[in-house]
Amino acid sequence: MKYTLSTLIVCLLLSAAAVAQKKAITLDDVWNGVYRTKGLDDLHSMQNGKAYAVFNFDRVERSTRVEIYNYKTGEKVKTLVSSADLPELNYFTDYSFSADESHVLLATEGASIYRYSSKARYYVYNVKTKGLIEVAEGKIQEPTFSPDGKKVAYVFENNIYVFDIASGSTDQITFDGVKNKIKNGITDWVYEEEFTFVRAFEWNATSSKIAFIQFDETQVPEFSMDVYGKGLYQTQEVFKYPKAGTENAKVEVFVFDIERNTTTPIAFTKSYIDFYIPRLQWTPKGEVLSVQVLNRAQNALDLWFVNTDTSTMNLVLEERDKAYVEVTDYLTFLEDSSFLWTSEKDGYNHLYHYAPTGKLITQVTKGQWEVTDFYGYDPSRSTLFYQSTENGTINRAVYSIKLNGRHKKGLALREGTNSAEFSANFSLFINTFSNAVTPPEFTLHEAVSGRLVKPIKDNKALLEQLSEVEMSQKEFGTLSVHGNDLNMWLLKPANFDAQKTYPLFMYQYSGPGSQYVSNAWHTTNDYWMQILAQQGYIVACVDGRGTGYKGAAFKKVTQGNLGHYEVEDQIEAAKQLGAFPYIDKTRIGISGWSYGGFVSSNCLFKGHTVFKMAIAVAPVTSWRFYDTIYTERYLGLPENNAEGYDANSPMTHVAQLKGDFLVVHGSADDNVHVQNTMRLVEALIQADKDFDWAIYPDKNHGIYGGNTRLHLYKKMTRFIHETLGDKRE
User: Fold this and answer.
1) Catalytic site residue from 188, 526, 627, 669
2) Cα distance between residue 677 and residue 698, in whole Å
3) What share of the chain is helix, strand, coil (3-state, %, to 5)?
4) Is 701 a catalytic residue?
């Protein structure tokens, strides 16, 4: 539906149903996990296609387990491994199988490093003998079974090692790894954050070779953060962080031959200067390696096939875009060495089938909608399985389609968010479904027809629990803003009275390709919005230009000018919402985290006649302070686009601040450095502006740990009450 002033007046003046006295949601309950959903943790389909494994915690034994369930009956077949039976382990937190499922890799004593990276102690569990052997002394990174299941490769202190399971021996294959200088087989900070992978090494199909990326960070500038801890003196964490326009790590691909004990560099036949290697993947042929090379501007991506036996290489595919090329996670090789690839080259993200030479065979999917996930290819039926926005950009559905692009079939089409986990032989899939009123439901389906086989798990108990709580339902719609229909939702108090007026609180993120207006079950943040609604606020979320899943043109309109159109859209949306008869246009606030903090700051400064207050959590305040890969993807190099970097910096507009402003940051934010807030605060002080701010010691970009998140949300709630509503705790 589309929100217009006239239709809303008609609908809302009909009547407001009386709301029975119900229990209020509290922030303490939210952060104590009272409303946590049940799920299927770390689901793994067993190779026989008849069973799946999940990670469970036994509350009676206080043990962690890998348990096997039968797909069709839903009954537990057995407990494969339990920490209660392993005296060497008090617990384990993760597991992974060898290809033949004869061994399981178990992680314990894990420690987070950055967003995706961690290190832990790892053990190999023998399913048949029930024996346990530690892979290495100490905590290691990214241990990975060889395809034949005989070895485990891993990284320790920036070097790659190979552990032989049978003999217990270990071979070191790189020797030059040094912190903040050389990294082998593990990505640097900026690759991890922006290309979203950590393990930068890959086994080939025959377990005879390991390809890896080496990162030479020697020339990358260092960033340091004070860590206050509990000691008499603070310490410092120092790491390499390339900010926009500065030196990146130099990357090189090497191939290690297990039998020959030799390491060979890959020398491209095309000259590259200042480039990225965002993906590395072996083809089914054990000697052929695929390498994706992306230029620094990120508008030109090349796919290479490298024969590591003959040192010959072919440039198979060239992706080009006026703005930037999206790196695909869905490169899939078929039995004839042809491959599947996703691209936005027709304006929407779709699946393509290419010959081994790179010649296009067919565009498998097409239409003014986007493929949002690719689940795999079933060679026995020449069928692909994928998720898309075909039933609306705020929804997700699951489909199958033939390799030739014909005979498309909807497999999970309920209005909301569907996602699938297929059995190894693609005969069955477990669908996870939720929408704004339905918490996650897990059901088993036939892959050919989509027919429901049986329910597996639901969260009806949570729904019953929430029936006793004051809850409001999201109202989805669109706003016509600057010639675009922008997705939005509204949340009103349960006792909403159309004859009254309410303050409006807007929450957004707005970053390139993001989506915050989606028909899915509540996040923790959604419960906070419910609390605000029950305390007398109307809450809104609008996805403006630059956000995702509405085509490349809509997403890439912000190219070279981050923060311009996004802020325009939020200001105009606030004006339109403020014109609704039940919204008090003199009491409108906006908030956001990270990119959302960047936008909310600018909304208050530039839109001071519209917004009364703003909260910015961990905001970027100048893109000059942010990393190379993300920033240059959208803005180019600073020396080539100074206007794009500075014109929309919140620091440029502090003199316009007239409302109430709260800025929050963690002092140990390795992503958006606290430097952003410190420089903004200094600019506000020099402009003689009054504002509120808070620094959370030793907390990262997520600002969590212990009581921290609860404290933060209580602080933000009080600030909203003091600036938009009645003062109350």
Assistant:
1) 669
2) 15
3) 15, 40, 45
4) yes
